[in-house]
Predict the 3D structure of the following.
Amino acid sequence: MLEPAYQVDVVIVGAGIAGLSAAHRLTSAGVTTVVLEAAPYAGGRMSTEKVDGFRLDRIGQLLSTSYPELRRTPGLGSLTLRRFAPGVLLHRDGQTHRTGAPATGGSARGALHVVRALASAPRGPAAAPGRAGAPVGGAVDQARLGAALGRIAATPVERLLSRPELPAAQALAARGMPARTVDGFLRPLLAALLCDPELTTSSRCADLALHSFASGRLCVPEGGAEALPELLAGTLAPGTVRTGVRVTSVSTTSVTTAEHGEIRCRAVLLATDARAAAELLPGLRVPDFHPVTVVHHTTDEPAAVLATGTSLLLDADRGGPVAHTAVLSNVDPSRAPAGRVLISSTVLGTPPDDVDTAVRIHLSRLYGTSTRRWETLAVHHTPQAVPAMRPPHDLRRPVRLLAGLYVCGDHRDTSTVQGALHSAHRAAAAILADLGAAGPMHRADPAPTLPRAA
């Protein structure tokens, strides 16, 4: 029999972390793969701007050391994660409290009240809004909350996913927790983890976020968000990733590009964002998105802000546009030149008109110091930063559309780095299963030469 007239086994469209991760899994299995990216660089939304020696993330999603795919993904073996201090700092009523560090011991009976609230979601009337009681900072609150987080960390994911699904805000209100626990800790924490200030996210996704928080430590990649795609791209065979190549159409057996014409293949994997995927395949569902704005400052008066150490600081009062902030150069010194301080702050939702001024005013209250002399390094606004996960949300949306055509990305899983990598894992497994173990899947040239444009 004649060998099919194809030039490569799999064409991946999009060089974000999902596409690059899938490329690693496919090439490791002996499947020839090429990754096409329209932008002049790989990485997609996980990009980092370099300004005067500073490394400034454009979105700055928080990672967790408990993400399984960070350990499982080929190519990320040398990734260094810089951890925040355990728990978080919460600013409320003019005071700052450390809370949320999982307990390492203690009686489960003493934490039963909060554990039951976290472990069940009875339907019922919503609790009245308010902030009754003292902030989450007392010894009893801390002990109960810490033990509860330890218990939720030990809860199997399958059990979390079997709970009734509600919007996260409604589920929190229905679980009967004290208002000071909801408003003083869970609401600001989940808003930061989900990039969703109104907590419209599925309660199942919110429970998964709490599970990840309680099971590990919040962290960021050393050197900036771009470290992940750079590692993935850099450990693929030279020529596997082609930037500046615009794909104009796809089918099960080919892609057409503006620069190189048609490329014949055995399978196509769309690893772009949801909107770009729907442009190539009309009919794919496009979710709503949560906008994110990140404002980066530096100052030559570091003493006042160094008091927060390596902690993530959340505003439980919602007294300004900043949802969370950190002296990021304390967490990851490589993000700032020697002797300089980098303060990175995240605004969720639609930012105010003069976002930098509003952020400065808010930060002066959060850090307890004047910010008038702070230098603004960058303001990055991303309208389509994070796909929304409103209920009902399918945590495992199909990655196989039909034999030969596949799709992956954070819009097919959870809207996290873990979700993007996991969807790539599922897509690569589906492709390998469809291609089968037999057949001419091995090639001498792992990075085929693309045709010239007609």
Notes: The radius of gyration is 23 Å.
